[in-house]
Amino acid sequence: MAGLILIVDDLSLNRTVLCGKLASACYRTITANGGAAALRLLHEHRPDLVLLDYHMPDMDGLAVCQAMRADPVTRDIPVILFSANSNHEHRLGALAAGADDFMSKPLDETYLLGRIRSLLRNVARHNEWRDHPNTALQTGLAESAAPFIRNPRMSIVTGHAGTRQGWLSSMAAIWPEARLDDITVPAALGLDDPRQAPDLFVITPDAMARSGLHVIAELRSRTATRHAEICLILPPDNRADAAMALDLGAADILMLPLDRAEARLRLEKAVAQKLRSDAQRRTLENQLGLAAFDPLTGLHNRSHGLAKLAHLVGQTECGVALLLIDLDRFKSINDRHGHNAGDEILRQVAHRMRQDLRHDDILCRYGGEEFLLAMPEASLSEARQVAERLCARIGDLPYTVPGSEKPLHVTASVGISLHGHAQAPVQTDELQRLIEASDAALRCAKQSGRNRVVSAQSVTA
Question: How many domains would you assign to the chain?
Fold first, then answer.
């Protein structure tokens, strides 16, 4: 569905003209003839963007914008403030009040539509996080990003050596706390690690003269730089290039001659947007990581462990040893000392077993007190040696746990199976057979006295 835009202007002719322009671009519109009506419609319709006149008799646009930013319901709705008076005080006041842009009348249609498209893309991205079924991702959405602005890293993209120092000095005057460096277009496009990318690229006119607007699309398309924000410095009234730059992915445009206060506000908004997106991505990565691990032991959980094992058996050509490790008589520990004691033993057992892992081994919690260890490229003798070391690590030292006055002794039994066809890939459908073979060997170890290692080969021999 097309974006819904609220047009706020006390003159009906202005509202009608804007409605026509936006309708021709397939946007839906609603209108308000004053600030109070606008605030009411904001709550009733939740528009995606607001076009707001600065001068209105009942409540000026500045007050409306400030009220929106103070209200959690409307705080994140983009606002473009416009006025017939484009002096410094009006522009600065609008941006300081939280407007995403300030435009002077008569509105340049090309730039206006480009700015709307840019802001609505941000709205769509924000809504994807807001509506995500994982509620942890929404943690930062209810808070303003402004308090979290740190001293950003900004790379000034210049066209030739003679202009670099001048641009660095100009940007240092605008944001003295920022960490500044200069970079050429080829160097920026040559970055191959996201950690090398700045929070913000500021592209100068001489860089644009050499490389053209396509540099924005190139930065946006590359893995190392696609999450960095981009601002352009353009000559005055170059609205056509400004609109195209916004369509290609620029966050904002700085017009020459640079006004320090206005440029600082625009750069801060771009950095705040970048930091918020970074925080949301980190939250998602953390949540995905938690989904792969058992929260008690810190090991891979069963589903993730089996997925990694399925991938492993489809890749290796040198055999896989599969060990099922089960703690002996573990139910009696829970019955006598409580589940807190049992949980503590499981944590300590997992910690002890980690000490015998190789880099490529896969260890997961398979069930209550049962663990699975996959060892790629391991022979039967190597797997047996590891299994016996694990039994010793688990059983040789007692466990101090809550609910027990005396240290507890725990032992483990291990069943081993092996895909032993050297240089022949393990077929994925063999995975279940390997697990069943290890399980049969484990049952044999239990039946023959516990605290021992049994291989499937010896069971079938």
Answer: 3
Domain closes at, from 254, 284, 314: 284
Residue that terminates a domain, selected from 131, 157, 172: 131
pLDDT tens for the chain, residues 1 to 461: 468 999 999 999 999 999 999 999 999 999 999 999 999 999 999 999 999 999 999 999 999 999 999 999 999 999 999 999 888 899 999 999 999 999 999 999 999 999 999 999 988 877 776 665 554 555 444 444 444 557 899 999 998 888 899 999 999 999 999 999 999 999 999 999 999 999 999 999 999 998 899 999 999 999 999 999 999 999 987 889 999 999 999 999 999 999 999 999 999 999 999 988 888 777 777 666 667 888 899 899 998 888 888 777 666 566 789 999 999 999 999 888 888 999 999 999 999 999 888 888 999 999 999 999 999 888 889 999 999 999 999 999 999 887 778 899 999 999 999 875 544 444 556 778 889 999 999 999 999 999 999 998 766 54
For residue 222, give its domain range: 141-284
pTM of the entire predicted model: 0.68
Please indicate, yes or no, whether residues 307 and 261 belong to a single structural domain of this protein: no
Q: Are strands 412-419 and 229-234 parallel, antiparallel or unpaired?
A: unpaired
CATH number of the domain bearing residue 98: 3.40.50.2300
> What burial letters (b/e) apply to 248-273, b meaning 16+ CB within 10 Å?
bbbbbbbbeeebeebbbbbbbbbbbb
We report the CATH number of the domain holding residue 363 as: 3.30.70.270
- Tell me: do 67 and 121 sit in the same domain: yes
Q: Token pair of 178, please?
A: 């920022």
Residue 346 and residue 447 in one domain: yes
Active-site amino acid positions: 369
Residue 454 lies in a domain: yes
Q: In what order do the strands lie in the sheet with 412-419?
A: 362-365, 370-376, 320-327, 412-419, 453-455
Residue 378 backbone class (left: φ over 0; alpha: ψ -120 to 50; beta: rest): beta
Percentage helix, strand, coil, to 5, in the chain?
Answer: 50, 20, 30
